[in-house]
Structure formats: C-alpha cells, structure tokens
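Before relying on records like the one below, remember that each one covers exactly one chain. Contacts with other chains, cofactors or solvent are not represented anywhere in the record.
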Amino acid sequence: MDSIITWLIGVETSAANLYEEAAIVFRGDEDFSRFLSQMAVEEREHVKLLQKASAAISDSEMKRASFYFGDDFRDKIEAPFSRALRLSKDGTLTKNAMVNVVADAEFSEWNELLLYTLDLLNVLDEEVQQAMLDFKKHRMRAQEYIASLPGGDSVILRVQRLTRPGGKRVLIVEDNLSVARMLEALAMDQVEVIIARDGQEGISCIQQRHFDLIISEIDLPKMNGVEMYKQALEKNPNIGSRFIFFTGTENPEHLDFVRSTNTLMLPKPSPVKLICEKMNDVLDSTAVPQDASIH
C-alpha cells in the first residue's frame, strides 16, 4: 500500500505541475489561465494532505487495504496527463485538448482513490470530511468551467458516468463509505449504483427493486451479509448468482456458508482488475428485467 501512496503523491504533483505550466502556456486567455492556476493550487493542497497522512501510517493501518491497484489502473489514471505532456512537448497542446485532459482526469476514478487512501491512512475524521468537500468543489469547479465553454456540455456528458433508461442496476452494501465509493467508481459505465450502509438497508433495497448485481461485505452492522443473502434468497431463489461477497471476514461459519453455497467471494484486499472482471461477468450474465423500460 505504501507504493500506491507514493505513486498517488507523484500523480497529484504531476497534475499540479501540468496545470501550472498550462496556465502559463494559455496566459493570453485570462479566464482559462486563472482556472488552471486555481486547479494547480488545489492539487498542491492534496499533496500536502497525503504527505501528512502517510508520514504517520502504521502497519495495522496498511492491513486495512481493500484494493490492490495494478499497473493497468495506474496507467488509466496517468493517461490524460501523459497525453498533455506529449502534446506540450510537440507544441500542439491546444485549449480544446487541454480542456479534454482536465475532463478525463477529474472525472476518472482519481478523486475516489484519493478519498479511499485518506480513509485508509486514518486521517482525522474532520480532515476527511473537509477533504470530501474540497474534492467535490474541485470537481465541480472543473465541471462548471468546462460546461461554460462552447461545446462544453458534450465534453461533460462524455466523461460523466450517466445511467441510460433500461440500463442495469448495482447494489453495493458496505459500511465503509470510501470503499463503497471506490467500488461505485469501478462499476461499468452507464450502470445505476445504489449504496446501502448496513444489511438491513441492503435487504430493504433488494425487496423493493431489481438489481443485476449485489456486491456486499459480510461483516455489516444491524444484519450481516450472510443473513441478508438468506433473506434475499427467500424473495428470489435465483438471486444468488447475482451476489459477490467482497469481504475481510474471518468468521469460519460465514466462510463455510459461502463455500457451501458456491457464492462468489473476493477477499479484501483484491486487485482492482479482478474486481472489475467479476462485476462485469455478473452484469454480462444478467438479462434486463421485463419491467425495465427499453429504448
């Protein structure tokens, strides 16, 4: 996990450097230059927060990790910045290209990864809450500026994870909100995601709506994931094939139950690539329900 923290600090630093350099390149466009400069300042603040948190990390906190982030995931996050640096070096970095770089970067899984990492590092609650507000403002600043440009709305529509009518629906049952948000960010494009924070809320969602995939922790407040699974099965005997347990449980009874039912289980931590593959496998195998509106 320490390697991902070092990498993330490097990405945030690279983003700040890129935004600062681009602000100079486009200084003739006062509004755009000011926007890029402000984005750079905010990226520098992200770096400071990560550095402060990582300096105090303990071995026990390292073991709380739920995800492994492989080279493929890292390459995806870095891709917009690499593209901008290549264009800048060639002298072909246009405003339109830079706007698309900002959109691709800020609406990727980047910010969710940053929040997840801060939670893992056990940053003080008030600092995490403030960081969540700051990241939301950071992304909103990018969205509002891009949307104000000619053709900007189409750029925002391209990068945002919007849900199509008749699309598929995913339920994430996870009491750690940063883990839930990371899973939400990893879900396939154009999938509606609902988050439940405990087993009772999860079974209530299942009883009220159709879900093509349920990905759940087992160790949950109010009702554990195994009990939620059993109650869901009473409602729909075929729902078991749509479940993935993503869990750090060490409860032998629960583990035996999962094995006996042959329910798909991924341990915490698991590689992001594997999580995405398994989620997509389940979603690809489920048909759109008959009561869904298809356009």
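Confidence is low (pLDDT under 50) at residues 289-295.
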